[in-house]
């Protein structure tokens, strides 16, 4: 097996181990996600190499980073997206699925430009814009709930 093939084989497992470590090593985790809506009303979803299902793009807020800086970084890394207007805060959510200490700030973005796709195809293995009535079957429950809250007027839950 070549060194490159070995790296491709081991990298998803290493990412899962590090993700699990950070879930328990930090006192509290804080993340950001975005509902990016294109002019046709479709929403951006991403598929990670280290967790199953389709998700709204986003990730963790790093030490010394603002929520808006983290959102801008994650959108650029995961889908080549740059917001052209300030994002609109949709809510703050407790995500007990990942940790008893995890919180997520969710934003909506309607004005953006997209320059290419994911910056690291080893992290984001697929991405795309989807109509609300044509979401991939394995779109996560939390993602579906946030979309229903924004687009269908479903009562907002404090839990992801």
Question: Termini separation (Å)?
Answer: 41 Å
Task: Assign the CATH superfamily.
Answer: Nucleoside Triphosphate Pyrophosphohydrolase
Mean pLDDT: 90
Q: What is the name of the CATH architecture?
A: Alpha-Beta Complex
Number of domains in the coordinates? Answer: 1
Helix fraction, binned, reads 25-40%
Percentage of residues in strands: 25-35%
For the secondary structure, the number of strands is 9
Query: Could you state the oligomeric state of the chains shown?
Result: single chain
Task: Please describe the biggest sheet, giving its number of strands, its sense, and whether it closes into a barrel.
Answer: 4 strands, mixed
Number of helices: 3
Uncertain ranges: none
Main β-sheet, spatial strand arrangement: 4-1-7-6
Order of helices and strands: HEEEEHEEEEEH
Cα shape = globular
Class based on secondary structure composition and strand pairing: alpha+beta
| Name of the level-1 CATH class | Alpha Beta
C-alpha-based Rg, rounded: 16 Å
């Amino acid at each position: 097996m070549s060194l490159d093939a070995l790296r491709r084989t081991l990298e998803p497992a290493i990412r899962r181990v590090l993700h699990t470590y950070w879930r328990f090593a930090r006192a509290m985790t804080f993340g950001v996600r975005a509902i990016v809506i294109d002019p046709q009303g479709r929403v951006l979803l991403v598929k990670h190499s280290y967790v199953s299902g389709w998700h709204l793009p986003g990730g963790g807020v790093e030490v010394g980073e603002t929520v808006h800086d983290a959102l801008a970084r994650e959108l650029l890394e995961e889908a080549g997206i740059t917001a052209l207007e300030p994002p609109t805060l949709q809510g703050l959510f407790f995500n007990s699925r990942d940790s008893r200490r995890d919180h997520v700030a969710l934003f909506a973005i309607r004005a953006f430009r997209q320059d290419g796709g994911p910056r690291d195809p080893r992290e984001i293995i697929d991405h795309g814009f989807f109509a609300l009535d044509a979401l991939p079957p394995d779109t996560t429950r939390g993602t579906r709930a946030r979309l229903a809250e924004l687009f269908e007027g479903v009562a907002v839950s404090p839990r992801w």
